[in-house]
């Protein structure tokens, strides 16, 4: 009984020394995906043989490796079957001669819940904002958001509706939700996605605001309806109808004047032509004779025109043939 107790004490001291002076031993970083199998070898870097009698895996001082999803192989390797995120830790393999190696296990998972998710509702739209605290080990591929009425009408099922676009940019930190109903409680969901799948969903409720403009309009619309005098309504209608009658009369008169303008213009043009002919007749007496010359019967010389007197009293006789 003395030897096992002594060996246990030595092992405990070795682990205590290892964790108090972790810088003395290099830590190997090993990545594993959640749900997959992961093997941690227990071997010396220099290839020296191990002392079989005393070795144990230690998870930060917790030596219980007898779980259903862990096993130790013949070559002293520790195998995780269906790795979980809770098993991300630093593992130490040691024997009587000291620490053999230390391995830090990093478990890559779907993204954890988003941080600081807030919803700022308006009357018919809402503004969703979030922050990314952790990606789960893989880069985020896109975000997804859904919404639905918390208390839908009896004839409708509480179906989730996707916020467009379906795949929100991985660099985005906010999205707008449109076509909401005023004064209604909505449930919003938002989560991140990476290559391992959908992350944990964050759910937030928000109440949209009243449509204040419609409410104020409804208040003032029937204000004073009980004391309203119908005679005022009749007078207002009479004023409106009278105004329309005056406008119609003015329009008809304007159209009548428009139709009369072309006839007056033609008459004025004829008067202008007549006034232009008077100076020509006064200054050139022969102009009138020429204008009023008529064809006559041919004479013995076959001339059928009459003599023309020009304004300088020069007489032009017909050409004799």
Automatic annotation (TrEMBL):
Where the record annotates domain Ig-like, the positions are: 34-93
- Record's signal peptide: 1-22
Question: What does the UniProt keyword field contain?
Answer: Membrane, Signal, Transmembrane, Transmembrane helix
Its ancestry begins with:
Eukaryota, Metazoa, Ecdysozoa, Arthropoda, Hexapoda
InterPro entries, alphabetically? Answer: FN3_dom, FN3_sf, Ig-like_dom, Ig-like_dom_sf, Ig-like_fold, Ig_sub
Q: Which PROSITE patterns match?
A: FN3 (PS50853), IG_LIKE (PS50835)
Domain of life the protein comes from: Eukaryota
Record's protein name = FN3
